[in-house]
Amino acid sequence: MVHYKLIYFNLRGRAELARLILQHQEIAFEDFRFEREDWPKYKAGTPFGQVPVLEVDGKPLAQSNAIARYLARQHGLAGQNDWEQSQADMYVDCIYDLIGGFLRQWCPRMVIQTAGMKNYKPPIDFSGIELPEKPKLTFMDKVPTYPSNLKPPKMAKRITLMRGPELIHNEFIHKQYGIVALCGGRLNSGHIEMIRMTINRKMDANRMFAVWRIDPPWQPLTRKGQGKRMGGGKGAIDHYVTPIKAGRVIVEVGGKCEFAEVFSFLNEVAHILPFNAKATSHELMEAEKIKEKELAASNVNPYTAEYVIKNNMGGCHDWISPYDKKWFFKYV
């Protein structure tokens, strides 16, 4: 005697048609059901990672329609000729549609293919976007302009200009796309020219525009001549740089375009910069802020970096940096 074992969730669903056939023919079978949370334990043992599965003397058979047709042929319910078999298939497909409607009500997030057509989202409305007269990035001077009677001043390293978060230029003005610094650093004229040339060449100026969000190089860096001994004051000005803080928006790109169109060349520029940076969009930045707040709210560990430093646990004030006392290890 053939032994049938029908494996499915603890509900009717797609296995119900096979159950009805077996019950109608008064055939004994093992109706093995399990709860949804136990599904990971049984998934690996199924042919396609799906249920229902009918085991016939230990041999698995998947797909609900294949199971139903197999049982119908084995027990005289598939019809005696081609016409009767087609009528049986008609009722099977009808039941399949009914089960699909039930599953949509039971689990609205479940994706069920009912036709070969694809559902495409409507295009984004760019009617409110106006392109500027000059859409491309402008050239930035390598050296700041000083009055003729003023000697270019020298300056100390001023590392504080790169430490900590950017408090002003940390949002997209045009609410679209751009490159954001992930840590502090400096941009010299070569980096700025690389950004300008790459973006201007690869963006479509008829639909897109780009704007600078940084100043031209203004901080002087000095260097002593080759073979010159230490001492005797600072050397001559070698070049100028623009200091960048973490979270600073370096360049913005917008227009009648989507993020996927500009991501390739923005990401290329971000990976060449002398500090960590990323290509992102306004929506992604807002989502990151929400996620950060959710993580902070759901943190059950009271001993955060802020708590440890504020309470001087382990005498950490004696060995941590003064900047860590202010920013709690966030900007290093």
Automatic annotation (TrEMBL):
<dbReference type="GO" id="GO:0004364">
    <property type="term" value="F:glutathione transferase activity"/>
</dbReference>
<keyword id="KW-0496">Mitochondrion</keyword>
<dbReference type="Pfam" id="PF00252">
    <property type="entry name" value="Ribosomal_L16"/>
</dbReference>
<comment type="similarity">
    <text>Belongs to the universal ribosomal protein uL16 family.</text>
</comment>
<dbReference type="InterPro" id="IPR047873">
    <property type="entry name" value="Ribosomal_uL16"/>
</dbReference>
<keyword id="KW-0687">Ribonucleoprotein</keyword>
<dbReference type="InterPro" id="IPR016180">
    <property type="entry name" value="Ribosomal_uL16_dom"/>
</dbReference>
<dbReference type="InterPro" id="IPR000114">
    <property type="entry name" value="Ribosomal_uL16_bact-type"/>
</dbReference>
<feature type="domain" description="GST N-terminal">
    <location>
        <begin position="2"/>
        <end position="79"/>
    </location>
</feature>
<dbReference type="GO" id="GO:0004602">
    <property type="term" value="F:glutathione peroxidase activity"/>
</dbReference>
<dbReference type="GO" id="GO:0019843">
    <property type="term" value="F:rRNA binding"/>
</dbReference>
<dbReference type="InterPro" id="IPR040079">
    <property type="entry name" value="Glutathione_S-Trfase"/>
</dbReference>
<dbReference type="GO" id="GO:0032543">
    <property type="term" value="P:mitochondrial translation"/>
</dbReference>
<dbReference type="InterPro" id="IPR036249">
    <property type="entry name" value="Thioredoxin-like_sf"/>
</dbReference>
<dbReference type="GO" id="GO:0005743">
    <property type="term" value="C:mitochondrial inner membrane"/>
</dbReference>
<dbReference type="Pfam" id="PF02798">
    <property type="entry name" value="GST_N"/>
</dbReference>
<keyword id="KW-0809">Transit peptide</keyword>
<dbReference type="InterPro" id="IPR004045">
    <property type="entry name" value="Glutathione_S-Trfase_N"/>
</dbReference>
<dbReference type="InterPro" id="IPR036920">
    <property type="entry name" value="Ribosomal_uL16_sf"/>
</dbReference>
<dbReference type="GO" id="GO:0003735">
    <property type="term" value="F:structural constituent of ribosome"/>
</dbReference>
<dbReference type="GO" id="GO:0005762">
    <property type="term" value="C:mitochondrial large ribosomal subunit"/>
</dbReference>
<keyword id="KW-0689">Ribosomal protein</keyword>
<protein>
    <recommendedName>
        <fullName>Large ribosomal subunit protein uL16m</fullName>
        <ecNumber>2.5.1.18</ecNumber>
    </recommendedName>
</protein>
